[in-house]
Amino acid sequence: MIVFILTSILFLVLLVVGLLVYLLYAVRAIIDTQDVIFDAAANAEEIYNEIQMNQEAIMNAHFRQN
Fold first, then answer.
1. Distance CA 46, CA 43 (A)
2. Cα separation of 62 and 16, whole Å?
3. DSSP secondary structure, 19-51, as one string
4. 5-14 per-position pLDDT tens digit
5. Can you tell me whether residue 1 is helix, strand or coil?
6. Does 57 score more than 90 pLDDT?
């Protein structure tokens, strides 16, 4: 009976530790995903600003020709 109780306790402790490790990796994956999304948004903003500058330069060059 004692062996069964000790085995059950050990199993439950290992189960809890495994779940905590899994949650740690899941949270880390979410944080990494948020970092990737933030970087992509920053790059998109840079590209958008560059496109706007190029459009303004094209418009200025067009008006100078006319």
1. 5
2. 69
3. HHHHHHHHHHHHHHHHHHHHHHHHHHHHHHHHH
4. 999 999 999 9
5. coil
6. yes
Cα distance between residue 14 and residue 44, in whole Å: 45
Structure tokens at 64: 């100078």
φ, ψ for residue 47, nearest 5 deg? -65, -40
The C-alpha atoms of residue 46 and residue 51 are separated, in whole angstroms, by 9
The pair of three-digit structure tokens given for residue 41, joined into one six-digit string:
């948004």
Token reading at 12: 């439950």
The structure tokens listed for 32 are 């990494």
Structure tokens at 19: 């779940």
Q: Which residue type is seen at 13?
A: V
Q: Which two tokens stand for residue 9?
A: 């306790």
